[in-house]
Amino acid sequence: MYSIALYPGDGIGIEVLDEAVSVLKAVEEVRGQKLFDFTQFDWGSVLWKRTGRLVPENYLDKLRDFDVVFLGALGDPANVPDHISLVPLIEMRQSFDQYVCLRPAKLLPGVRCPLAGKECGDIDILVIRENSEGEYADVGGGLKVGWEDEISIQTAVHTRHGIERIIRYAFTAAGLRRDKLTVATKSNALKYGMVLWDATFEDVRKDYPHIKADKCHVDALAMNLVRWPERYDVVVASNLFGDILSDLGGVISGSLGMAPSANINPERRYPSLFEPVHGSAPDIAGKGVANPIAAIRSGAMMLEFLGLQEEATLVENAVKGCLVDGRALTPDIGGSAATSIVGADIRSRILAQ
Ligand code: NAD
Ligand code: IPM
Ligand code: MN
Prior knowledge:
By secondary structure, the chain is of the alpha/beta class. It folds into 2 domains: 1-109 and 268-353, Isopropylmalate Dehydrogenase, CATH 3.40.718.10; 124-252, Isopropylmalate Dehydrogenase (3-Layer(aba) Sandwich), CATH 3.40.718. The protein is built from 12 helices and 12 strands. It has helices spanning 12-31, 45-51, 59-64, 82-85, 87-95, 160-175, 193-205, 218-227, 239-252, 293-305, 309-325, 339-351; strands spanning 2-9, 36-40, 68-73, 100-106, 124-130, 134-143, 151-157, 180-185, 212-217, 234-237, 260-264, 272-276. The strands form 2 sheets. It has a 10-stranded mixed β-sheet with strand order 2-1-3-12-11-4-5-10-8-9, with helices on both faces. Strands 6-7 form a two-stranded antiparallel ribbon. The longest helix has 20 residues, at 12-31. The two termini are 22 Å apart. The relative contact order is 0.17. 3-isopropylmalic acid (IPM) is lined by residues 86, 89-90, 243, 277, 279.
């Protein structure tokens, strides 16, 4: 039995996690065995309205002993400022040392690519995002706040230790795929942090001579991912660059609504966290049209992390079946089906195995 903390969060996070959990329950049913022990935490903007807090003070302690955390999405910008409502997410990643963020961008069969002429097989990229420091280090402050001459300072913190461990992880990941690695940089302008990224990359690459590795400035890389996505395999990037490139990866693979992610503590000292790449999507929340596939595939990544490889493949195949069949697709990928219909379709494919 694996203990799973469910953190649905806000907006469509609640809607898509609900479907993804039902999919996990279908996996249990088809296996004829209870595999998961779920505990749900209804934290987020609803709790904020009631109590003025997004999460209980000891929320990290409450989560600490779970095997994994399965999250929907956070954010309710109409009611809580984003830099407050998203604190728990960034805090979990940093406190639980989930320094590897895996964000696969793969064009699946049956999905229309927004880039002309690209087909299934043309896009299979793994964005690996440094998830514990960099631009997201909470270092900075303000002066003369609210005045005309207000000053704000926001400092990035890049450590050789932090850069080296993510670049090594990325080299290893590339070795298990197509032996190609691209490091996102911006050392032409960011003369300290990104120069350290470049130098660390040059040191580490010596240990992986069989990997075809290169660096690319992140602006050019964004362009190249649009014009030549087929040339890329593993892309490793700092926290902020990885954030931006993974939304791009999601949409060129059909829709952000299908992009999964895993926030991993490779040493397994703390729980790892699984969530879709997308946010709470206030523009479609409550309408029942959110694509649940990103959350469902994040669930598949979680199964793989837990060692349930066959079960993960079962879910991935059910998703592919749904996409190829094409009758139960949400509007973001050209269909008109509701979130619940897509979830039900994927569950029925699992149960039919
Ligand atoms: P978003 O990812 O929520 O939405 C961007 C666009 O993609 C919207 O047009 C939305 O409708 C669409 N979209 C996203 N997920 C979809 C899905 N599953 N199906 C169909 N369409 C989908 O990004 P945003 O609008 O910039 O942010 C909204 C809120 O979410 C903000 O509060 C933001 O801070 C937060 N956010 C949270 C997370 C997270 O919890 N991991 C990630 C990103 C943004
Ligand atoms: C993501 C999100 C978060 C991030 C935000 C909401 C803090 O965009 O998970 O990609 O920037 O990491
Ligand atoms: Mn993001």
